[in-house]
Amino acid sequence: MGKFHKIIIKCQDHKYFHKTKKNTKMKTISLKIFLGIMALVIICSAKSSKRDPLALYAELDKNAPVNTLTAKEKANGWQLLFDGKKTDGWHGYNMKVFPDDCWEIDNGTFTTTNSGSKEGLDIVTDKVYRSFAFSVDYKMDTATNSGVIFQIREDPKYKFPYETGPEFQIIDHENWKKDKLEDWQINGANYAMYPPMAKPYKALHEWNHLFLVVDGNFVTQMLNDVVVVKYEKNSDDWKKRRDSGKWTGFPDWGKFDEGHISLQNHGTKVWFRNIKLKQL
User: Fold this and answer.
1) What are 146's strand-pairing partners?
2) pLDDT for 114
3) Closest CA to 187 of 160, 132, 225, 148
4) Which of 77, 225, 229, 247 is the most buried if burial means most Cβ atoms within 10 Å?
5) CB-based burial of residue 87 (10 Å sphere; 0-12 exposed, 13-18 middle, 19+ buried)?
6) What is the DSSP letter of 179?
């Protein structure tokens, strides 16, 4: 949400209220109308004053050592979600512990260890988030399929995070041979919803920088300095896409405004590092 401004109205002179009941009543009605108009202005201003994703992006120091925060980043409210050494702050989806049978820490990265291109066990943040900016570096192998999923609800009735949360797609679509991909399935897309507006992904085994801003209903996805997806949740366009595609079979998809964030394990090799988050 945007910023709210406090307005204080004082009647400093008792002569403001006339002695007659008629005039006093009129002044009271006028004041109520004025306050109502001001409240409407404030609400409309808050709705439209969403934070600038590019300004948030500029707060990150690209020259900072891997898996660390600079003093400036800390001062701007950024948190480090992975130090390259410990699994603190993460657990397996619908689990209490970290799934070390299919994920490991390797050379300062979170990486998958299972194979077979089938949906595996995602790792999710211990905390839930509503409005936030999220930053992570990722690297792909041949035919990697993964993603960052957000607004996830944990519940035994769900098997995978994607049943409830939107996904910033990570995939080596150029070498994906399993089936034909739609434009909303390629790298940088908001999976099964919005295709990327650009394709700034890097070559295999090079680090890509993923940046995600969820500011209330406003969502922005950036890849390697370029905005690739922008949308407003619950808009007519968003509802039309949700109700006419893959998610018709998942009634709780997109239902939650607050949830965990996951790194997807799709049975292919992927690496993650430099995981940072700022709550808005």
Assistant:
1) 170
2) 83
3) 148
4) 229
5) middle
6) S
Neighbours of 19 (CB within 10 A): 7
C-beta neighbour count of 127 within 10 angstroms:
12
Cross-strand pairs, 230:
220
pLDDT one-digit tens code per residue, 23-45: 545 455 455 555 555 554 444 44
* Residue 19 pLDDT > 80: no
DSSP 8-class letter at 54: H
Query: Which helix (H) or strand (E) is 242 found in, with range?
Result: helix 236-244
- Is 10 strand, coil or helix? coil
CA distance 135 to 77: 13
Rounded Cα distance between 218 and 221, Å, is 10
Greatest Cα pair distance, the chain, in angstroms, is 85
Q: Order of strands, edge to edge, in the sheet holding 260-263? A: 90-92, 123-125, 260-263, 145-152, 167-171
- Among 150, 259, 153, 240, which Cα is nearest to 194's? 240
Nearest to 135 by CA among 186, 81, 206: 81
First-residue to last-residue Cα distance in the chain? 8
Taking only the tens place, the pLDDT of each residue in 200-227 is 999 999 999 999 999 999 999 999 999 9
Alpha carbons 78 and 73: distance in angstroms, whole number: 5
User: Among the listed ranges 29-33, 150-154, 254-258, which one has the minimum average pLDDT value?
Assistant: 29-33
For the chain, what is the mean pLDDT?
87
Q: Beta strand pairing status for 218-223 and 270-279?
A: unpaired
Contacts (Cβ under 8 Å, ≥6 apart) of 15 = none
Q: What are phi and psi of 276, to 5 degrees?
A: -130, 150
SS3 for 30?
A: helix
